[in-house]
C-alpha cells in the first residue's frame, strides 16, 4: 500500500512576522520539515508560491495540517473554495489544529461530514466578518479623531494594518508579548503608546 504523506502549511501576512508558532505546531503533529510549505505574504489572493507548490504535490489520502482556518484564505469565499478543492477534488484530509471539529479524518459518515462542513462555514464567515468589523471600526475611529483635531503625521509611527489582529491575539494569550512586538515591528514603548491610542479610539466610537 502506498504510504500517504503528511503536509503542513504555514502562512504569515508579512515578512516581518514570526512564523515559529505555526512551525512548532507542525513539528508537534509530526510533519517533516521537507513537507512544510510556507508563504510570507498577504492572503488576499492565492498567488502564493508555497501554497501552489504544496497543492501540486498533495494527493488523495494525504493529510494536511494548518494551525487555524484563516491560513487557507482571508475571506469566506476563498476558504470555502480551497477546502472544497483539497477535500473533494483532490481527496486529501485536512486537520485544523486549533479546531478539533475540523478534522476530516473523523466522522466520515454523512452526519460527520455535515457537521464539519457546517462548522467550516460558520468559522470562515465569522473570521471574515471580524476582520471587516475591525477594519471598519478603525476607519471610523480615525475619522472621529481627525474631526476632533488629532493629527496623524510625523513623528508618529503608523499603526500596521494588522495591529488590531495582533492586539487581539496577544490579549487572548495566543502569542507572547515579544511575538506581538515582533509582528508589529515596534519597540515596547511604542507598542504601549499605540495600544493606548488604539483603545482610546475604539472607546470613542463605542
TrEMBL record:
Higher taxonomy: Bacteria, Bacillati, Bacillota, Clostridia, Eubacteriales
Keyword Transcription attached: no
Organism whose genome encodes this protein: Eubacterium plexicaudatum ASF492
MF annotations from Gene Ontology: DNA binding; DNA strand exchange activity
Pfam families, per database record: Resolvase
PROSITE patterns xrefs: RECOMBINASES_3
CDD domains per record: SR_ResInv
SUPFAM superfamilies: Resolvase-like (SSF53041)
Domain Resolvase/invertase-type recombinase catalytic: 5-149
Keywords of the record: DNA recombination, DNA-binding
Domain of life, per lineage: Bacteria
Name of the featured protein: Resolvase/invertase-type recombinase catalytic domain-containing protein
